[in-house]
Amino acid sequence: MSDMEMASAERADLADLLSTLTPEQWDTPSLCEGWRVRDVVAHVAGYEDLDRFGLARRFVRGWIVNTNQVRVEELRGLTNEELLDRLRSHLVPRGVTSGFGGMIALVDGTIHHQDIRRPLGLPREIPAARLRRVLDATMRNPRLPAWRVTRGLRLTATDLDWSHGKGREVRGPAEALLMAAAGRQDAVTELEGPGQRILANRLAR
User: Fold this and answer.
1) Residues in the chain with pLDDT < 70?
2) Gap between the Cα atoms of 127 and 134, Å rounded
């Protein structure tokens, strides 16, 4: 399965989850600081209708680093149902999220899916091939903190045939390794090994 196909499947899985949530769950704080569940959904589906000129305008408005917040605020007036419809109408990534054959949408969508599920206490089993691909791509992504927080550590999944790096070992579920590598502190307590404390300290900075 290609990255684009996996990204589409990930968005479909997220849409299926969202269709079951109550209004209160849509307003639950996610793992993304300052964003509720609905804000994360707005972010995931927020760039599909932007051409490069529209994206450039948002870079200017957001001074690059705040571009995501600018887009979320632009979509804040949409209802939960409208956000879900927006996501369902863009299951196949396009525009900026289709970059690198869909890899951008795959990584972004998978991590943000878990940003929603974890605070809601709704775990899931991510398909192994998809999770392995996202883990590999996350470790190489310069926009994510993985390169910094996992430096000098060996990450070893206990439920998936996957490992990365050299050094003091950090062991645990593959999904928890992914979320910790993506900068989510709440996943660190699910990990163990001689490198766990190092990883925890780096994420706390």
Assistant:
1) 49-68
2) 11
User: In the block, which residue shows the tokens 């990255």?
Assistant: 3
pLDDT digits (tens, 9 = 90+) for 25-43: 999 999 999 999 999 999 9
Whether the Cβ atoms of residue 13 and residue 3 lie closer than 8 Å to each other: no
**Residues facing residue 168 across a β-bridge:** 153
Q: What is the pTM of this model?
A: 0.90
Q: For every residue of the chain, which 3-state class applies, written as one string?
A: CCHHHHHHHHHHHHHHHHCCCCHHHHCCECCCCCCEHHHHHHHHCCCCCCCHHHHHHHHHHHCCCCHHHHHHHHCCCCCHHHHHHHHHCCCCCCHHHHHHHHHHHHHHHHHHHHHHHHHHCCCCCCCHHHHHHHHHHHHCCCCCCHHHHCCCEEEEECCCCCEECCCEEEEECHHHHHHHHCCCHHHHHHCECCCHHHHHHHHHC
Query: Distance between CA 142 and CA 5 in Å, rounded?
Result: 23
In the block, residue with structure tokens 């972010």: 43
Structure tokens at 41: 């959904």
Nearest to 167 by CA among 196, 204, 205: 196
Is residue 45 within 8 A of residue 86, CB to CB? The reply is yes
